[in-house]
Amino acid sequence: MDKSAATTGPDGLDRTPWGNGNALMSAYYDSEWGVPVTSETGLFERLSLEAFQSGLSWSTILRKRPAFREAFAGFDPDAVAAFGDADVERLMTDAEIVRNRRKVDATITNARATLALREQEGLPALIWSFRPERTPVPLRLDQVPSTSEESVALSKELKRRGFAFVGPTTMFALMEAIGMVDTHLVGSHRRGVSGLWNPDGSRAASPVF
């Protein structure tokens, strides 16, 4: 069997291989990954978690997500933007999350940058303005890119707006997670779940803000 093509899980459903990794990953794959996210809080949370994931496995972040939500006030940008030195020290002693000082500082920085964007187009409109005209139509994992022209451009623009830990690879992972691109393998039962893409990879519907 070609392990890089869609695989069948114990429940008989075909998924991108990582979606059959364990029960936690399967649940995330089946209910969240690739579903459009357009709220400010939802996007700030996913932006933050993708940054914390850098260099780690996504399953590690998923296991720690409840603790992250508690530690970062439900990823409310207003609350996180107000974090000070005492909060940083509290986070750096919290063994339930990823204790990386640069990533903690970046999350607070990004909350403040998110608030600043309210005076302009706002975080959701900014991120979704980089949605490409077409999405990949991969049959195998080796056909799924790790960056794109749009993720590079989004990375540059977010950095220009004061965000940190938003490299092109991290931004492409964000785009996959929120349905801006659909990289579910052809054959997966979740292919097309966002409702935003036609089978040939062209745009269908637009996200609702």
Task: Give the structure's gist in a few sentences.
This is DNA-3-methyladenine glycosylase I. The protein has 209 residues and is an all-alpha fold.
What does this entry look like structurally?
This protein has 209 residues and is an all-alpha fold. It has a domain at 40-117: Hypothetical protein, domain 2 (Endonuclease III, domain 1, Orthogonal Bundle), CATH 1.10.340.30. 45% of the residues lie in helices and 2% in strands. The chain is built from nine helices and two strands. The chain has helices at 23-31, 40-53, 58-71, 77-81, 85-92, 101-117, 123-128, 149-160, 168-177, and strands at 7-8, 14-15. Strands 1-2 form a two-stranded antiparallel ribbon. The longest helix has 17 residues, at 101-117. It is globular, with a radius of gyration of 17 Å. The relative contact order is 0.17. The model has no long low-confidence stretch (mean pLDDT 95).
List keywords for this structure.
globular; 2 strands; 2% strand; Endonuclease III, domain 1; 45% helix; 9 helices; mainly alpha; 209 residues; single chain
Give the SSE map:
Blueprint: E1 7-8, E2 14-15, H1 23-31, H2 40-53, H3 58-71, H4 77-81, H5 85-92, H6 101-117, H7 123-128, H8 149-160, H9 168-177
Antiparallel strand pairs: 1-2
Pfam family, one: Adenine_glyco
GO molecular function: DNA-3-methyladenine glycosylase activity; metal ion binding
Protein name: DNA-3-methyladenine glycosylase I
